[in-house]
């Protein structure tokens, strides 16, 4: 096992950069803005004195504690330590607020109260839920899952929420429903999007699953993390958690869930279909066009940012649950 320390903040490794050639002819989009995420976003944690930025970060993570949570014994731990909350809170992707990893401060502008989620389409019982309705109607549980980003970094996170199949049972899809489309909140007056792009982008952020994937035991809606309400930078107040797929499949800040009969267009698959597939299962044997997926940088502890190089597992280690979906 090799321990690698954070490089200087001005140095960016290629596999930490989200696509540089996307928008013209679906190849030019994010040339400059994933860049200094590792270095710049985590420098405050290396200081001997607590900076105002770190204080603000800690405040953003102090969300109300969730009660009545049961720990699902089938998903109580994995063979890696849980990533420290402070690291997970400041190193993540949320493209509605920009392309760098340190979007946590901008994400605090996300309006989450009130919040409604419309469930519609090919279902017998369409319904619009308040976020508190979801927390009370569906029993909450904690699940510790591996998280694997397509950019070849990873974490282990203790999500709080409920299985997606519980929502399926409540709304009763018809036999015509073959896919599910998930739509994230978008308001151009609130959400700036990337700071560098050419042309328009396919907002709102949308993702999709086959209905069989949504019904899988692993598929999860998160309303919390580390025992409290989901912080805004993690996609409050409701996000998808699909642990056998790359992280971009987990749409954040969901406002609409639609059961439909055809495969939906999704954000990254629309922009760069040769780099971001609709299926997006974690596969160490299928490299990204610009980097290998055979290994990953596992982030777990501070101060600062360091990571261990780990071998990537097929389906992110969850093959026993999901491999039959793709046989």
Q: What does the model show?
A:
With 327 residues, the chain is of the alpha+beta class. It is globular, with a radius of gyration of 19 Å. It has a single domain, classed as Oxidoreductase, molybdopterin-binding domain (Sulfite Oxidase, Chain A, domain 2, Alpha-Beta Complex), CATH 3.90.420.10. The chain is built from 8 helices and 14 strands. Strand 5 and strand 6 form a beta hairpin.
Give a brief rundown of this model.
The protein contains eight helices and 14 strands. It has helices at 37-42, 52-60, 85-90, 131-137, 164-171, 211-214, 267-271, 319-322; strands at 3-5, 70-71, 116-121, 127-130, 141-148, 153-163, 179-184, 206-210, 220-225, 228-229, 239-241, 254-260, 295-299, 306-311.
Percent range for helical residues? Answer: 10-25%
Count the beta strands: 14
User: What would the principal axes of the Cα set say about the shape?
Assistant: globular
Beta-strand percentage range: 15-25%
**What string, H for helix and E for strand, traces the elements in order?**
EHHEHEEHEEHEEHEEEEHEEH
Structural class: alpha+beta
Main attributes of the structure:
single chain, 327 residues, alpha+beta, Sulfite Oxidase, Chain A, domain 2, nine-stranded mixed sheet, five-stranded mixed sheet, 8 helices, 15% helix, globular, disordered N terminus
């Amino acid at each position: 096992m090799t321990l690698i320390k954070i490089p200087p903040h001005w140095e960016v490794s290629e596999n930490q950069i989200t696509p540089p050639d996307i928008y013209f002819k679906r190849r030019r989009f994010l040339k400059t803005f994933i860049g200094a995420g590792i270095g710049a976003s985590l420098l405050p944690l290396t200081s001997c004195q607590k900076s105002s930025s770190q204080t603000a970060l800690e405040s953003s993570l102090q969300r109300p504690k969730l009660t009545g949570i049961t720990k699902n014994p089938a998903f109580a731990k994995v063979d890696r330590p849980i990533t420290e909350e402070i690291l997970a809170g400041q190193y993540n992707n949320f493209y509605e607020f920009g392309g760098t990893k340190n979007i946590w401060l901008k994400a605090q502008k996300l309006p989450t109260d009130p919040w409604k989620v419309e469930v519609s389409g090919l279902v017998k019982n369409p319904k619009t839920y308040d976020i508190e309705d979801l927390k009370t109607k569906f029993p909450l549980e904690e699940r510790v899952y591996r998280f694997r980003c397509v950019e070849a970094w990873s974490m282990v996170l203790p999500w709080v929420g409920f299985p997606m199949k519980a929502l399926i049972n409540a709304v009763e899809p018809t036999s015509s429903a073959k896919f599910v489309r998930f739509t994230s909140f978008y308001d151009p007056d609130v959400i700036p999007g990337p700071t560098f792009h050419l042309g328009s982008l396919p907002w709102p952020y949308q993702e999709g699953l086959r209905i069989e994937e949504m019904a899988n035991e692993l598929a999860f809606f998160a309303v919390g993390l580390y025992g409290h309400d989901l912080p805004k930078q993690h996609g409050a107040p409701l996000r998808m958690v699909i642990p056998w797929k790359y992280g971009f499949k987990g749409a954040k800040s969901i406002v609409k869930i639609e059961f439909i009969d055809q495969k939906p267009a999704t954000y990254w698959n629309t922009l760069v279909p040769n780099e971001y597939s609709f299926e997006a299962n974690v596969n160490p044997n299928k490299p990204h066009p610009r980097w290998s997926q055979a290994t990953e940088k596992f982030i777990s502890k501070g101060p600062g940012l360091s990571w261990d190089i780990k071998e990537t597992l097929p389906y992110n280690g969850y093959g026993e649950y999901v491999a039959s979906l793709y046989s």
